[in-house]
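Form 7-S
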Amino acid sequence: MHAGPQTSLIDEVVAGEAIPLRPDEISDYDPLFEAIGSRRIVLIGEASHGTHEFYRERARITKGLILEKGFDAVAVEADFPDANRVDRYLRGEGSDRDAEEALRGFKRFPQWMWRNAEVLDFVGWLRAHNDRIDDPDSKTGFYGLDLYSLHTSINSILEYLSKIDPQGAARARARYSCFDHFGEDTQMYGYSTAYGLAESCEREVVEQLVELYERSSELARLDGRVARDDYFFARQNARLVKNAEEYYRKMYRSDVSSWNLRDSHMAETLEELDSFISAKNGRPAKIAVWEHNSHLGDARYTEMGRRGEWNVGQLAKQKYGGNVFSIGFTTDRGTVTAASNWGEPAERKRVRPALEGSVENLFSAAGLDRFLLLMKEGSHAAEALKEPLLERAIGVIYRPETERQSHYFYASVSRQFDSVIHIDETRAVEPLERTVEWDEGEAPETFPSGM
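Output:
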Protein backbone atom coordinates (compact mmCIF):
# COMPACT_ATOMS: atom_id res chain seq x y z
CA MET A 1 0.00 0.00 0.00
CA HIS A 2 1.15 3.55 -0.60
CA ALA A 3 0.49 7.10 0.53
CA GLY A 4 -2.32 8.81 -1.32
CA PRO A 5 -3.55 12.41 -1.68
CA GLN A 6 -1.36 15.39 -1.02
CA THR A 7 -1.82 18.02 1.64
CA SER A 8 -3.39 20.54 -0.73
CA LEU A 9 -6.17 18.12 -1.70
CA ILE A 10 -6.99 17.39 1.96
CA ASP A 11 -6.91 21.12 2.70
CA GLU A 12 -9.48 21.62 -0.04
CA VAL A 13 -11.70 18.81 1.25
CA VAL A 14 -11.59 20.05 4.86
CA ALA A 15 -12.27 23.63 3.76
CA GLY A 16 -15.22 22.55 1.61
CA GLU A 17 -16.86 19.69 3.51
CA ALA A 18 -15.64 19.62 7.12
CA ILE A 19 -18.20 20.57 9.76
CA PRO A 20 -16.49 22.59 12.53
CA LEU A 21 -17.20 21.31 16.04
CA ARG A 22 -17.37 23.48 19.13
CA PRO A 23 -16.55 21.78 22.44
CA ASP A 24 -19.92 22.46 24.07
CA GLU A 25 -22.38 22.64 21.16
CA ILE A 26 -24.22 19.33 20.77
CA SER A 27 -26.19 20.91 17.88
CA ASP A 28 -22.98 20.75 15.83
CA TYR A 29 -23.63 17.00 15.64
CA ASP A 30 -27.01 17.46 13.93
CA PRO A 31 -25.52 16.59 10.48
CA LEU A 32 -24.05 13.43 12.02
CA PHE A 33 -27.41 12.36 13.47
CA GLU A 34 -29.04 13.11 10.12
CA ALA A 35 -26.46 10.92 8.36
CA ILE A 36 -27.05 8.11 10.88
CA GLY A 37 -30.75 8.30 10.06
CA SER A 38 -32.58 5.09 10.95
CA ARG A 39 -29.47 2.94 11.28
CA ARG A 40 -29.63 0.94 14.47
CA ILE A 41 -26.03 -0.20 15.03
CA VAL A 42 -23.70 2.78 15.51
CA LEU A 43 -20.01 1.97 15.97
CA ILE A 44 -18.15 4.75 17.81
CA GLY A 45 -14.40 4.32 17.83
CA GLU A 46 -11.38 5.95 19.42
CA ALA A 47 -7.78 6.32 18.25
CA SER A 48 -6.44 5.48 21.72
CA HIS A 49 -7.69 3.87 24.92
CA GLY A 50 -6.65 6.86 27.02
CA THR A 51 -7.84 10.15 25.50
CA HIS A 52 -10.24 12.45 27.38
CA GLU A 53 -11.86 13.96 24.29
CA PHE A 54 -12.61 10.59 22.66
CA TYR A 55 -14.53 9.40 25.74
CA ARG A 56 -16.24 12.77 26.12
CA GLU A 57 -17.42 13.00 22.52
CA ARG A 58 -18.52 9.35 22.43
CA ALA A 59 -20.63 10.02 25.50
CA ARG A 60 -22.16 13.17 23.95
CA ILE A 61 -23.00 11.35 20.72
CA THR A 62 -24.44 8.38 22.61
CA LYS A 63 -26.63 10.61 24.77
CA GLY A 64 -28.03 12.06 21.55
CA LEU A 65 -28.68 8.58 20.16
CA ILE A 66 -30.53 7.61 23.34
CA LEU A 67 -32.58 10.80 23.64
CA GLU A 68 -33.28 11.51 19.97
CA LYS A 69 -33.28 8.09 18.36
CA GLY A 70 -34.34 5.78 21.19
CA PHE A 71 -31.18 3.69 21.42
CA ASP A 72 -31.55 0.78 23.85
CA ALA A 73 -28.01 -0.11 24.88
CA VAL A 74 -24.33 0.70 24.95
CA ALA A 75 -22.01 -2.25 24.22
CA VAL A 76 -18.36 -1.67 25.09
CA GLU A 77 -14.90 -3.20 24.71
CA ALA A 78 -14.99 -4.56 28.25
CA ASP A 79 -15.50 -7.86 30.03
CA PHE A 80 -19.08 -9.09 30.14
CA PRO A 81 -19.46 -9.67 33.93
CA ASP A 82 -17.81 -6.35 34.84
CA ALA A 83 -20.14 -4.46 32.53
CA ASN A 84 -23.09 -6.46 33.88
CA ARG A 85 -22.41 -5.01 37.33
CA VAL A 86 -22.76 -1.53 35.81
CA ASP A 87 -25.91 -2.60 33.98
CA ARG A 88 -27.50 -3.77 37.25
CA TYR A 89 -26.66 -0.43 38.86
CA LEU A 90 -28.23 1.43 35.93
CA ARG A 91 -31.45 -0.53 36.47
CA GLY A 92 -31.53 0.20 40.20
CA GLU A 93 -30.57 -3.38 41.07
CA GLY A 94 -27.59 -4.77 42.93
CA SER A 95 -25.93 -3.29 46.01
CA ASP A 96 -23.77 -0.52 44.52
CA ARG A 97 -24.65 2.86 45.97
CA ASP A 98 -23.24 5.05 43.21
CA ALA A 99 -21.53 4.98 39.82
CA GLU A 100 -18.04 4.78 41.27
CA GLU A 101 -18.91 1.61 43.20
CA ALA A 102 -20.55 0.11 40.12
CA LEU A 103 -17.31 0.58 38.18
CA ARG A 104 -15.23 -1.26 40.80
CA GLY A 105 -15.74 -4.51 38.92
CA PHE A 106 -13.11 -3.33 36.43
CA LYS A 107 -10.10 -4.63 38.35
CA ARG A 108 -7.78 -6.05 35.75
CA PHE A 109 -5.30 -4.12 33.62
CA PRO A 110 -6.02 -1.63 32.07
CA GLN A 111 -8.35 -0.28 34.76
CA TRP A 112 -8.32 3.26 33.39
CA MET A 113 -10.18 2.23 30.24
CA TRP A 114 -13.43 2.11 32.22
CA ARG A 115 -12.49 3.49 35.63
CA ASN A 116 -11.97 7.06 34.50
CA ALA A 117 -13.65 10.41 35.09
CA GLU A 118 -15.50 10.51 31.75
CA VAL A 119 -17.03 7.04 32.10
CA LEU A 120 -17.98 7.87 35.70
CA ASP A 121 -19.91 10.93 34.49
CA PHE A 122 -21.56 8.97 31.68
CA VAL A 123 -22.67 6.13 33.97
CA GLY A 124 -24.09 8.73 36.35
CA TRP A 125 -26.02 10.30 33.46
CA LEU A 126 -27.34 6.89 32.35
CA ARG A 127 -28.58 6.11 35.87
CA ALA A 128 -30.40 9.46 36.10
CA HIS A 129 -31.91 8.84 32.66
CA ASN A 130 -33.07 5.35 33.61
CA ASP A 131 -34.53 6.54 36.91
CA ARG A 132 -37.03 8.59 34.92
CA ILE A 133 -38.29 5.48 33.08
CA ASP A 134 -40.86 3.21 34.74
CA ASP A 135 -40.77 0.23 32.35
CA PRO A 136 -37.72 -1.93 33.25
CA ASP A 137 -37.42 -3.17 29.66
CA SER A 138 -37.17 0.40 28.37
CA LYS A 139 -34.16 1.35 30.48
CA THR A 140 -30.84 1.77 28.64
CA GLY A 141 -28.52 -1.21 29.11
CA PHE A 142 -24.73 -1.41 29.42
CA TYR A 143 -23.01 -4.56 28.16
CA GLY A 144 -19.48 -5.88 27.71
CA LEU A 145 -18.35 -7.56 24.50
CA ASP A 146 -14.85 -8.79 25.38
CA LEU A 147 -13.59 -12.22 26.43
CA TYR A 148 -10.74 -11.82 28.93
CA SER A 149 -12.84 -12.55 32.04
CA LEU A 150 -12.57 -16.35 32.06
CA HIS A 151 -12.53 -16.81 35.85
CA THR A 152 -14.96 -14.00 36.66
CA SER A 153 -17.40 -15.48 34.15
CA ILE A 154 -16.99 -18.94 35.66
CA ASN A 155 -17.82 -17.53 39.10
CA SER A 156 -20.89 -15.77 37.67
CA ILE A 157 -22.17 -19.03 36.14
CA LEU A 158 -21.65 -20.96 39.38
CA GLU A 159 -23.41 -18.26 41.39
CA TYR A 160 -26.37 -18.31 39.00
CA LEU A 161 -26.71 -22.11 38.98
CA SER A 162 -26.28 -22.38 42.76
CA LYS A 163 -29.46 -20.31 43.20
CA ILE A 164 -31.69 -22.22 40.81
CA ASP A 165 -30.11 -25.65 40.29
CA PRO A 166 -27.59 -26.92 42.88
CA GLN A 167 -27.04 -30.16 40.96
CA GLY A 168 -26.35 -28.24 37.77
CA ALA A 169 -23.96 -26.03 39.73
CA ALA A 170 -22.09 -29.13 40.95
CA ARG A 171 -21.71 -30.39 37.38
CA ALA A 172 -20.45 -26.98 36.24
CA ARG A 173 -18.03 -26.76 39.17
CA ALA A 174 -16.61 -30.19 38.32
CA ARG A 175 -16.11 -29.21 34.68
CA TYR A 176 -14.49 -25.88 35.43
CA SER A 177 -12.17 -27.45 38.03
CA CYS A 178 -10.06 -28.32 34.98
CA PHE A 179 -8.61 -24.81 35.31
CA ASP A 180 -7.73 -25.20 39.01
CA HIS A 181 -4.14 -26.29 38.29
CA PHE A 182 -3.38 -22.82 36.96
CA GLY A 183 -5.11 -20.70 39.61
CA GLU A 184 -6.24 -17.54 37.81
CA ASP A 185 -3.17 -17.38 35.56
CA THR A 186 -4.87 -17.62 32.18
CA GLN A 187 -1.64 -16.94 30.30
CA MET A 188 0.06 -19.89 31.98
CA TYR A 189 -2.94 -22.02 30.99
CA GLY A 190 -2.58 -20.86 27.39
CA TYR A 191 1.17 -21.48 27.31
CA SER A 192 0.93 -24.93 28.92
CA THR A 193 -1.83 -26.20 26.65
CA ALA A 194 -0.44 -24.62 23.47
CA TYR A 195 2.88 -26.41 23.92
CA GLY A 196 1.51 -29.75 25.14
CA LEU A 197 2.54 -29.33 28.77
CA ALA A 198 -1.04 -29.80 30.00
CA GLU A 199 -4.37 -31.07 28.72
CA SER A 200 -6.79 -28.41 27.55
CA CYS A 201 -10.22 -27.78 29.09
CA GLU A 202 -11.88 -27.52 25.68
CA ARG A 203 -14.20 -30.50 26.12
CA GLU A 204 -15.39 -29.34 29.55
CA VAL A 205 -16.21 -25.77 28.57
CA VAL A 206 -18.07 -26.91 25.45
CA GLU A 207 -20.09 -29.43 27.50
CA GLN A 208 -21.12 -26.72 29.96
CA LEU A 209 -22.19 -24.35 27.20
CA VAL A 210 -24.18 -27.08 25.47
CA GLU A 211 -25.96 -27.97 28.72
CA LEU A 212 -27.03 -24.38 29.28
CA TYR A 213 -28.38 -24.13 25.73
CA GLU A 214 -30.17 -27.49 25.97
CA ARG A 215 -31.87 -26.39 29.18
CA SER A 216 -32.96 -23.03 27.75
CA SER A 217 -36.69 -23.94 27.59
CA GLU A 218 -36.63 -25.28 31.16
CA LEU A 219 -34.81 -22.24 32.53
CA ALA A 220 -36.97 -19.88 30.46
CA ARG A 221 -40.04 -21.13 32.36
CA LEU A 222 -38.74 -19.39 35.46
CA ASP A 223 -40.97 -16.41 36.09
CA GLY A 224 -40.11 -12.74 35.70
CA ARG A 225 -37.82 -10.37 33.89
CA VAL A 226 -34.95 -10.90 36.31
CA ALA A 227 -35.02 -14.68 35.72
CA ARG A 228 -35.04 -14.14 31.95
CA ASP A 229 -32.15 -11.65 32.13
CA ASP A 230 -30.13 -13.81 34.53
CA TYR A 231 -30.40 -16.82 32.21
CA PHE A 232 -29.22 -14.72 29.26
CA PHE A 233 -26.24 -13.43 31.27
CA ALA A 234 -25.31 -16.97 32.40
CA ARG A 235 -25.48 -18.26 28.84
CA GLN A 236 -23.30 -15.42 27.57
CA ASN A 237 -20.77 -16.05 30.32
CA ALA A 238 -20.64 -19.74 29.38
CA ARG A 239 -20.04 -18.82 25.74
CA LEU A 240 -17.36 -16.38 26.87
CA VAL A 241 -15.58 -19.11 28.88
CA LYS A 242 -15.64 -21.41 25.86
CA ASN A 243 -14.19 -18.73 23.56
CA ALA A 244 -11.71 -17.44 26.15
CA GLU A 245 -10.34 -20.96 26.66
CA GLU A 246 -9.69 -21.21 22.92
CA TYR A 247 -8.28 -17.68 22.78
CA TYR A 248 -5.68 -18.33 25.48
CA ARG A 249 -4.65 -21.59 23.78
CA LYS A 250 -4.18 -19.85 20.43
CA MET A 251 -2.54 -16.62 21.58
CA TYR A 252 0.88 -18.32 21.74
CA ARG A 253 0.53 -19.80 18.26
CA SER A 254 -0.77 -17.04 16.01
CA ASP A 255 -1.46 -13.34 16.41
CA VAL A 256 -3.92 -13.45 13.51
CA SER A 257 -6.00 -16.36 14.81
CA SER A 258 -6.19 -14.96 18.36
CA TRP A 259 -7.15 -11.48 17.04
CA ASN A 260 -9.79 -13.00 14.77
CA LEU A 261 -11.18 -15.19 17.55
CA ARG A 262 -11.47 -12.22 19.90
CA ASP A 263 -13.23 -10.01 17.35
CA SER A 264 -15.47 -12.88 16.26
CA HIS A 265 -16.48 -13.32 19.90
CA MET A 266 -17.27 -9.60 20.24
CA ALA A 267 -19.28 -9.62 17.00
CA GLU A 268 -21.19 -12.74 18.12
CA THR A 269 -21.92 -11.12 21.48
CA LEU A 270 -23.27 -8.07 19.68
CA GLU A 271 -25.56 -10.35 17.64
CA GLU A 272 -26.73 -12.12 20.81
CA LEU A 273 -27.46 -8.75 22.44
CA ASP A 274 -29.34 -7.63 19.36
CA SER A 275 -31.53 -10.75 19.42
CA PHE A 276 -32.08 -10.55 23.19
CA ILE A 277 -33.04 -6.86 23.26
CA SER A 278 -35.14 -7.14 20.08
CA ALA A 279 -37.14 -10.05 21.51
CA LYS A 280 -37.58 -8.23 24.81
CA ASN A 281 -38.80 -5.00 23.20
CA GLY A 282 -40.75 -6.48 20.32
CA ARG A 283 -38.85 -4.36 17.79
CA PRO A 284 -35.32 -4.25 16.31
CA ALA A 285 -32.78 -3.19 18.91
CA LYS A 286 -30.68 -0.04 18.63
CA ILE A 287 -27.16 -0.37 20.02
CA ALA A 288 -24.19 2.02 20.30
CA VAL A 289 -20.83 0.23 20.34
CA TRP A 290 -17.73 1.72 21.97
CA GLU A 291 -14.43 0.17 20.92
CA HIS A 292 -11.06 1.16 19.48
CA ASN A 293 -10.88 2.33 15.85
CA SER A 294 -8.92 -0.83 15.03
CA HIS A 295 -11.92 -2.97 16.07
CA LEU A 296 -14.67 -0.83 14.52
CA GLY A 297 -13.21 0.49 11.25
CA ASP A 298 -13.89 -2.06 8.48
CA ALA A 299 -10.75 -4.24 8.38
CA ARG A 300 -11.21 -5.03 4.68
CA TYR A 301 -9.89 -1.56 3.86
CA THR A 302 -6.85 -1.60 6.13
CA GLU A 303 -3.45 -3.24 6.35
CA MET A 304 -5.03 -5.63 8.88
CA GLY A 305 -7.21 -7.13 6.18
CA ARG A 306 -4.20 -7.84 4.00
CA ARG A 307 -2.76 -9.88 6.89
CA GLY A 308 -5.90 -12.00 7.03
CA GLU A 309 -7.42 -10.24 10.04
CA TRP A 310 -11.05 -9.26 10.37
CA ASN A 311 -12.74 -7.18 13.05
CA VAL A 312 -16.07 -6.21 14.59
CA GLY A 313 -16.60 -3.40 12.08
CA GLN A 314 -16.23 -5.73 9.10
CA LEU A 315 -18.36 -8.49 10.64
CA ALA A 316 -21.09 -6.02 11.65
CA LYS A 317 -21.20 -4.55 8.13
CA GLN A 318 -21.45 -8.05 6.67
CA LYS A 319 -24.19 -9.04 9.12
CA TYR A 320 -26.29 -5.86 9.26
CA GLY A 321 -25.39 -4.10 5.99
CA GLY A 322 -27.03 -0.69 5.72
CA ASN A 323 -28.13 -0.76 9.37
CA VAL A 324 -24.55 0.02 10.50
CA PHE A 325 -22.93 3.46 10.76
CA SER A 326 -19.31 3.86 11.89
CA ILE A 327 -17.50 6.83 13.42
CA GLY A 328 -13.71 7.04 13.74
CA PHE A 329 -11.59 9.51 15.70
CA THR A 330 -8.17 11.02 14.98
CA THR A 331 -5.82 13.42 16.78
CA ASP A 332 -2.47 14.98 15.97
CA ARG A 333 -0.82 15.56 19.36
CA GLY A 334 -1.31 16.03 23.11
CA THR A 335 -1.14 13.56 25.97
CA VAL A 336 -2.56 10.08 26.52
CA THR A 337 -3.02 7.71 29.44
CA ALA A 338 -1.16 4.51 28.57
CA ALA A 339 1.40 2.06 29.93
CA SER A 340 4.88 1.35 28.60
CA ASN A 341 4.36 -2.41 28.85
CA TRP A 342 1.47 -4.76 29.56
CA GLY A 343 0.48 -4.78 33.22
CA GLU A 344 2.56 -1.73 34.17
CA PRO A 345 1.17 1.42 35.86
CA ALA A 346 -0.75 4.02 33.89
CA GLU A 347 1.37 6.97 32.78
CA ARG A 348 0.44 10.34 31.33
CA LYS A 349 2.52 10.28 28.15
CA ARG A 350 3.12 12.95 25.55
CA VAL A 351 1.73 12.06 22.12
CA ARG A 352 4.13 13.05 19.38
CA PRO A 353 2.85 15.12 16.45
CA ALA A 354 1.63 12.71 13.77
CA LEU A 355 4.03 11.47 11.09
CA GLU A 356 4.25 13.51 7.90
CA GLY A 357 1.79 12.27 5.30
CA SER A 358 -0.41 10.45 7.79
CA VAL A 359 -4.13 11.18 7.85
CA GLU A 360 -3.71 12.84 11.26
CA ASN A 361 -0.91 15.06 9.96
CA LEU A 362 -2.91 16.06 6.87
CA PHE A 363 -5.99 16.84 8.95
CA SER A 364 -3.90 18.96 11.31
CA ALA A 365 -2.34 20.88 8.43
CA ALA A 366 -5.83 21.85 7.22
CA GLY A 367 -6.04 24.31 10.11
CA LEU A 368 -9.33 23.41 11.89
CA ASP A 369 -9.02 22.46 15.57
CA ARG A 370 -12.08 20.19 15.62
CA PHE A 371 -14.20 18.97 12.75
CA LEU A 372 -16.47 16.23 11.43
CA LEU A 373 -16.14 14.71 7.96
CA LEU A 374 -19.00 12.66 6.53
CA MET A 375 -17.86 10.13 3.93
CA LYS A 376 -20.96 10.35 1.78
CA GLU A 377 -20.81 8.38 -1.43
CA GLY A 378 -19.56 10.62 -4.24
CA SER A 379 -18.36 13.37 -1.90
CA HIS A 380 -14.92 14.92 -2.28
CA ALA A 381 -14.01 13.57 1.17
CA ALA A 382 -14.91 10.01 0.18
CA GLU A 383 -12.85 10.25 -3.00
CA ALA A 384 -9.86 12.07 -1.48
CA LEU A 385 -9.57 9.62 1.45
CA LYS A 386 -10.09 6.47 -0.61
CA GLU A 387 -6.39 5.98 -1.28
CA PRO A 388 -4.45 4.36 1.61
CA LEU A 389 -2.81 6.67 4.14
CA LEU A 390 -0.86 6.03 7.31
CA GLU A 391 -3.15 6.05 10.35
CA ARG A 392 -2.16 5.96 14.03
CA ALA A 393 -3.51 3.56 16.64
CA ILE A 394 -2.58 3.85 20.33
CA GLY A 395 -3.94 1.08 22.52
CA VAL A 396 -3.27 0.59 26.22
CA ILE A 397 0.47 0.65 25.48
CA TYR A 398 2.20 3.62 23.86
CA ARG A 399 5.83 3.48 22.77
CA PRO A 400 6.71 6.78 21.08
CA GLU A 401 10.30 5.67 20.55
CA THR A 402 9.13 3.00 18.06
CA GLU A 403 6.00 4.82 16.94
CA ARG A 404 6.15 4.09 13.19
CA GLN A 405 6.51 0.34 13.75
CA SER A 406 4.33 0.11 16.86
CA HIS A 407 1.42 2.41 16.12
CA TYR A 408 0.94 3.10 12.40
CA PHE A 409 -0.75 1.13 9.62
CA TYR A 410 -2.18 1.92 6.20
CA ALA A 411 -5.93 2.35 5.73
CA SER A 412 -8.41 3.70 3.22
CA VAL A 413 -10.12 6.03 5.68
CA SER A 414 -13.32 6.73 3.69
CA ARG A 415 -13.95 3.00 3.25
CA GLN A 416 -12.92 2.15 6.80
CA PHE A 417 -15.41 4.60 8.38
CA ASP A 418 -18.66 6.35 7.45
CA SER A 419 -17.46 9.48 9.26
CA VAL A 420 -14.39 10.79 11.07
CA ILE A 421 -14.06 13.28 13.91
CA HIS A 422 -10.68 15.02 14.17
CA ILE A 423 -9.57 16.83 17.34
CA ASP A 424 -6.18 18.38 16.76
CA GLU A 425 -4.85 18.50 20.32
CA THR A 426 -6.11 16.15 23.01
CA ARG A 427 -5.32 15.32 26.60
CA ALA A 428 -5.02 12.19 28.71
CA VAL A 429 -8.14 10.75 30.27
CA GLU A 430 -8.05 10.97 34.07
CA PRO A 431 -8.00 7.57 35.84
CA LEU A 432 -10.03 7.21 39.02
CA GLU A 433 -6.89 5.65 40.55
CA ARG A 434 -4.14 8.13 39.71
CA THR A 435 -0.66 6.64 39.96
CA VAL A 436 2.56 8.47 40.79
CA GLU A 437 3.62 7.81 37.20
CA TRP A 438 0.45 9.46 35.91
CA ASP A 439 0.68 12.51 38.19
CA GLU A 440 4.30 13.07 37.22
CA GLY A 441 3.61 12.68 33.51
CA GLU A 442 4.79 15.50 31.29
CA ALA A 443 2.13 17.68 29.66
CA PRO A 444 2.63 19.25 26.25
CA GLU A 445 3.70 22.90 26.13
CA THR A 446 0.23 23.94 24.96
CA PHE A 447 -2.08 21.98 27.22
CA PRO A 448 -5.78 22.11 26.24
CA SER A 449 -8.24 23.13 28.92
CA GLY A 450 -10.72 20.37 28.08
CA MET A 451 -13.54 22.72 29.00
